[in-house]
Amino acid sequence: MRGATHAKWAAGAVVVALAVTACGGGSSGGGDGSGIVKSSWGDPQNPVEPANTNEVQGGKVMDMLFRGLKKYDPKTGEAKDMVAEKVDTSDSQNFTVTLKDGWTFSNGEKVTAKSFVDAWNYGANIDNKQNNAPFFANIEGYDKVHPENGNATAKTMSGLVVKDDKTFTVKLKEKFSTWPQTLGYQAFSPLPQSFFKDHDGWLKKPVGNGPYTVDSYTKGSSMKLRKWDGYKGDDKAQNAGVDLVVYTDNNTAYTDLMAGNLDLVDDVPAKQLKNVKNDLGDRYINQPALIVQTLVFPLYDKNWGKEGMEKVRRGVSMAINRDEITKQIFQETRTPAKDWTSPALGDKGGYKDDICGDACTYDPEQAKKLIEEGGGLPGGKVTVTSNVDTGSHREWMDAVCNSINKALGKGAVCTVNPIGTFADFKNQMSNFKMTGPFRSGWQADYPLIQNFLQPLFYTGASSNYGKFNNKDFDALVDKANKESDASAAVKDFQDAEKILAQQMPSIPLWYQNGSAGYSENVSDVTLNQFSVPVYDQIKVK
Fold this sequence. Notes:
By secondary structure, this protein is an alpha+beta fold.
């Protein structure tokens, strides 16, 4: 499971976070002759290491610094072999991984089977406190290195065995037929020995095996990445490098784009959506993505998690006029949500537009009835929380509360709680300090329905910030992961999703498009299925 990471938490959506600091303006874009792409960025919450990054901003860096066993095709999302020559199995539980020849890290170290096994063991070990540790939970021996309680009783997972430099085997605890498709997620990246020998030094200047190297990183200001000429892969950088410039206000980033100080912004401000087509013409990108926005209830709070409150949660959902909000605020960049996944999955991938049903339909009368039957709003009020440094979060939060207040007709019972930065917001979520519904933006790590459900709602999962706990849901997810037939697995996941519709641990709000704008100084700008710019293919004129 990254659940989106990758699956990822996005500062702006999940989407993309931007911002300004003093460094947010003044320098010119790619037209200065340097061949460098200058792009808006938001500071990652955590150090940029593969098993510790589970939000979009850090994920952008990982995607430029590392290549794993597989890589997701930017257009289709298909998991294609990258460092892997092949991943074989005869029973969907025991896998043999064979690596291609010639791959190295940018410091000259060879990429070997040990590079992957050591990285995965490090990521899984409870002592290392890596956010993406649950992605390794399927591997036999994970419970020894990452027990639910107490200290680790082993340093490595028994299910990982290095056979030779090019080969290692993986034994999973149970059958997981689609496991190879998850291997494009950054948590499964290899690591050089320098990571383990000088961890602090590596964090200051990370070393990977991808198309770029880190030239410098100043937290709160920028990260400068430069093309690595020794890169082995076919997707070599088509530019000289990328400067990721930190912004705390995407309106300022957009202004800098229009002034020629930036080449790329990948979070067009809500205030500019009416103008962006005229401003940028065909240099504006707006396309469906594997992203969904929800409001999560803190079920660890006794007021929201007690028995019977599912009616109240359902009622709050029915008090939100999604159609009106998406039209007025988001200008064709959002679509009212009808489930907890994304239409970008398609029917075969598991998307169904009737899973949420009436609970995602605006119905003021039914909303009032359900809230009353469930015992009413805790203390007669509800507070909606989000970071407000990216996207249009303040605008839509106000709109959601206005809708709820109008539907319930009891005055200003809904209020907003704006938090200044995504990092502060994420810290409050991670420490389970919320007292009312809070924003969740989920950007998938890979195009599987599993990635929208397991990381967010499975008991103890890495991004289950509402602490939803349901044995029937968990059992259906486990059953789906064991299926050898993909269509049977999808059906199980959809059955699990129906439990979400009954319990409403979160409220689906809308599906989000990936949006971006770029300058006349660059070309070949595209977004992948996860709405992240394909930086290595951008050309500077």
